[in-house]
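It would be a great kindness if you could assist me with a short task in structural biology. The matter concerns a single protein, recorded as an amino acid sequence and a row of C-alpha cells. Kindly check, if you would, that the fold set down in the C-alpha cells agrees with what the sequence suggests. Thank you for your consideration; the sequence and its C-alpha cells are set out here:
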Amino acid sequence: MHDHIHSQPEDATNQTLSRLALSLGLTLAFVAVEAFAGVAANSLALLTDAAHNLTDVIALGLSWYAVRLATRPSNARKTYGYHRAGILVALVNAATLGIISLGIFYEAWQRFLAPPEIQSGILIGVGLVAFAVNLCTALLVKKGSEHDLNLRSAFVHLTGDVLSTVGAVIAGVIIYFTGANWLDALVSVLIGLLILWNAWGILRETVDILLEATPRDVDMSAMLRDMKQVKGVLGVHDLHVWSISSSLRTMSAHILTDDIAISSGAAIQAAINELVAQRYNISHATLQLECLGCAPDALYCDMNGAGYLRVDDK
C-alpha cells in the first residue's frame, strides 16, 4: 500500500516530464519553419513569434530540468531539497521574456518608420499552423501549472504564443484586403506588451518567494485569530510564513501555553498543524511551545508588539 502511495507522485512527475519533452520537441521543430516563413514573407510578426517560440524552447528545457532536479532527495547541504530550482527557472524565464519584449519594441518602431511590404498569404498560412502547434503545446503543459510557478512560467510562454499567432493571422487578413503593412508592426507591439505583462506577473511572484515573503493569499491576522481558537493556545509570537516553492509552504511560530505536560503540548501542535494545512495550505510547520511565564525573546520579531496579537485578547 505504501509503495502504491509513493508511486503516485513519481508517476505524476514522469507524466509532467513527458509532456514537457513533447512540447519542447514540437516547439523546436516549428521554430525553424516559422523563422524561414518570416524571412520569406518579410514579416516582423512571424519573426517576432519565431523568436518568442525560441525562448519557449529554452523555457521548456529549463522547466523540464527543474522538474527533474526537484525529484532529488534532500541532503545535509540542501535540507529542503531542490524545490526552488523551479523558482530560479521561472525567474530566468521572466527575465528572458522582458528582454525579448524590449527587442520587439525596438524593431517594431523601425518598421513603423518604414513599413516593408508583407506577404500576407504566407503570414496567414503560417499563423494558422502556429496557432495549432502553440495551442497543442500549451494544453500539454497546462496540467499542474495552477500550483507550480515553474510550469506556469512555461505555460505563460506558450499561451502568449497562442494569442500572438491569432493576432498575426488577423493582421495578415487585414493586410491582404487593405495593404496596410504597418499593421504587422502594430501586432508585434501588442505581442510585446502581452509578453511584458506576463513576465512582470511571474517576476513579482518569484521575487516574493526568493525574499520569503508571506504568500499573497494568506491573511496573517486571520491566521493568528484561527490559531488562538485552538484549545490551549494563550498567545502567538515570532510568526513567519513563507514559500519554498509556489506549491510548498512552511511556517514557524512560538506558541504560548500554560505550564503543561509534553503530551498535552503535542496535542496542541497537532491541532495547529491540521488547521494551517487545511485552511492555508501550509504543509510544514515548526512550532515552539512556551509556558505563560516565559517572555518573548527580544532578538526575534515580536508579533505582540506589532499590533497583531496581545495575550489578553483571548
User: Anything to note?
Assistant: Residues 1-7, 303-314 have pLDDT under 50 and may be disordered. Residues 237 and 306 are 10 Å apart (CA to CA). The two ends are 44 Å apart (CA to CA).
